[in-house]
Specification:
With 309 residues, the protein is an alpha/beta fold. It is 50% helix and 13% strand. It has an eight-stranded mixed sheet with strand order 3-2-4-1-5-6-7-8, with helices on both faces. β6, α10 and β7 form a beta-alpha-beta unit.
Length: 309
């Protein structure tokens, strides 16, 4: 089983079941087949705009090539999807630029998406790579968030900076970055509040955190990582929209795809917001956060051998 097969299996089964029913007995790709593909993509929560873009491109290729087999159709569909998520044209995923030290990551996202867990898994991954990591518990509105981050810090064997519940989040971020510099840490990961009262509050809080970190490291944060729950479909789109308005989101981590038939949300969000995915969560284990390889993801989603019956 490939790296992403586990994470996209339900999405894949849902898509191919609908596609197979539309194609059976057909000698060419007609409007019914294209309609079925459109329905399958929309039901995977790829989003209407992205789906229509795929269908338009597919129609052009069908018109040019006329007849194509099931395998050819799926291959072309995979090519079109890959084009949408291949934002930078890089062949291999590059997660971080460790020439910057400490490399500062500010992690944002609403409560319940797996934000703190993602930070813990990321710390575990980086520690295994030999990096010195320090965590900042700047989600001071919830005691549970600080406690959970402490558990992950202990589990990963990394340092953590925290203050009392209700403390100024920017103060925690400042202390974390300052400690990272003093201790020679490679990476500082700052957790932030999952939800504030409205977008203005959110924008002000994240801007304040960014500004105080820059008093220590002038170009911090180097990455603003937005964590989204892939199983929530269109809600994930809305969250991406709101956080993109509130701050300069530079990368995404999409969690909880393993239990969902809505894996198309990954494609739609990248296409609509032009923000690259760095990580994908495909399970509950501490090693189930993976660097996102777009080519391997598409290959896992559009490999038909195990589903063609």
């Amino acid at each position: 089983m490939g790296l992403f097969d586990k994470g996209v299996q339900k999405t894949k089964q849902n898509f191919f079941q609908k596609l197979s029913r539309a194609i059976v007995g057909k000698s060419k790709v007609d409007d019914d087949v294209l309609d079925a593909i459109e329905e399958a993509l929309v039901s995977s929560d790829m989003g209407v705009d992205t789906t229509l873009k795929v269908i338009e491109n597919l129609e052009e290729r069908v018109e040019r090539d006329k007849y194509m087999s099931f395998e050819e159709l799926v291959g072309i569909l995979g090519d079109e999807i890959f084009k949408l998520i291949d934002l930078d044209g890089k062949k291999d995923p590059v997660a971080f630029d460790f020439s910057k030290k400490p490399y500062v990551i500010m992690v944002v996202g609403v409560n319940g998406v797996g934000k703190t867990t993602t930070i813990g898994k990321l710390a575990t991954m980086l520690k295994a790579q030999g990096k010195k990591v320090i965590l900042g518990a700047a989600d001071t509105f919830r005691a549970a968030a600080v406690d959970q981050l402490q558990i992950w810090a202990d589990r990963a064997g990394v340092d953590i900076v925290k203050q009392d519940m209700g403390s100024d989040p920017a103060s925690v971020a400042f202390d974390t970055v300052k400690a990272a510099v003093a201790r020679g840490a490679d990476v500082a990961i700052i957790d932030t509040a999952g939800r504030l009262h409205n977008r203005i509050d959110l924008m002000n809080e994240l801007t304040k955190i960014r500004n105080v970190m820059r008093k220590v490291v002038p170009d911090a944060p180097h990455d603003v990582l937005l964590v989204l729950d892939g199983s929530t479909g269109q809600n994930a789109f809305q969250q991406a929209k709101e956080f993109s308005r509130a701050t300069d989101v530079t990368s995404l981590a999409v969690t909880k795809l393993d239990g969902s038939a809505k894996g198309g949300v990954v494609i739609g969000i990248v296409d609509q917001f032009k923000i690259p995915i760095k990580f994908i969560g495909i399970g509950e284990g501490k090693d189930d956060l993976k660097i996102f390889d777009k080519r391997e993801f598409v290959s896992s989603l559009f490999t038909i051998d195990d589903l063609k019956k």
